[in-house]
Amino acid sequence: MQKAIVSAALAAAALGFVPAHAAGTPSPKDALVYFIWPSDGTVITGGKFWVRMGLRNMGVCPKGVNLPNVGHHHLLINTALPAMDQQIPSDRNHLHFGAGETEARIELPPGKHTLQLLLGDHDHKPHDPPVYSTKISIIVK
């Protein structure tokens, strides 16, 4: 029985069939999310600062809006990219901007921190292909 299931899955893959749950909301292959500010290596005094998020070849919209080529920002702080086939976590390391914000004032304690942007779809899942920025490092004094 298990051998038949594996054979059917291999045959489906060979014919180009992919299970519906395997792919997320489509994104353009040339989509780009990036930091407007801060830039890599920025030294911030005082801990409070504005993060300004940019997006190219897609649009920003609030969570729950299910339209082609749109999404909303998520800021990853001191963490790796999450699983690309699941909802983006919501905690102190994964900040959601579900109202469609393109900038936010955040506060971090003194030290070195990494920041990365990840665009989420209407259901807080990464797109397919995922749209994420280069990870940057900042220092808070």
Order of helices and strands: HEEEEEEEEE
What is the assigned CATH homologous superfamily?
Answer: Immunoglobulins
Mind describing the biggest β-sheet? 6 strands, mixed
* Number of continuous helical runs: 1
Strand tally is 9
Task: Supply the CATH architecture.
Answer: Sandwich
Multimeric state: single chain
Keywords: Signal
Domain DUF4399: 51-141
InterPro entries: DUF4399
Protein name: DUF4399 domain-containing protein
Describe the structure.
Helix content is 9%, strand content 35%. It has one helix at 2-14; strands at residues 32-37, 43-44, 48-56, 59-60, 70-77, 94-96, 103-107, 111-120, 136-140. The strands form two sheets. Strands 2, 4, 5, 6, 8 and 9 form a six-stranded mixed sheet that branches. The N and C termini lie far apart (62 Å). Residues 1-22 have low confidence and may be disordered.
Concise account of the structure shown:
By secondary structure, the chain is mainly beta. Helices cover 9% and strands 35% of the residues.
Summary tags:
about 10% helix, six-stranded mixed sheet, DUF4399 domain-containing protein, Immunoglobulin-like, disordered N terminus, signal, about 140 residues, elongated, mainly beta
